[in-house]
Write a structure and sequence with these properties.
This protein is α+β, with helices and mostly antiparallel strands and 76 residues long. It has one domain: Nuclear Transport Factor 2, Chain: A (Roll), CATH 3.10.450. Helices cover 37% and strands 32% of the residues. It has one helix and three strands; from the N terminus they run E-E-E-H. It has a three-stranded antiparallel β-sheet, with helices on one face. Strand 2 and strand 3 form a beta hairpin. This is Integrase.
């Protein structure tokens, strides 16, 4: 997990929490992130929780996609 400080085009400062994961479909490493405005411990914890939920939902959707690709015999 990593933390970044970014500045938007309008000059506002945003903080970003990100994490890397390996995509089982492609085998490539990808990054997911959540951004927030305040750099407080409670905001970081909330962003970390949101990121974990985001990755959990993505993995569930991916598992459903993989399960639907399994062999199903044709009905005659």
């Amino acid at each position: 997990m990593f933390y970044k400080r970014r500045e938007t085009k309008t000059g506002k400062i945003r903080f970003e929490v990100g994490d890397s994961y390996k995509d089982p479909l492609t085998g490539k490493w990808k990054t997911a992130s959540v951004s927030y405005y305040k750099d407080t411990s409670s905001a970081r914890k909330k962003a970390e929780f949101e990121l974990q939920e985001k990755l959990k939902i993505y993995s569930m959707l991916l598992n459903q996609k993989l399960m639907s690709r399994q062999y199903s015999p044709l009905k005659i």
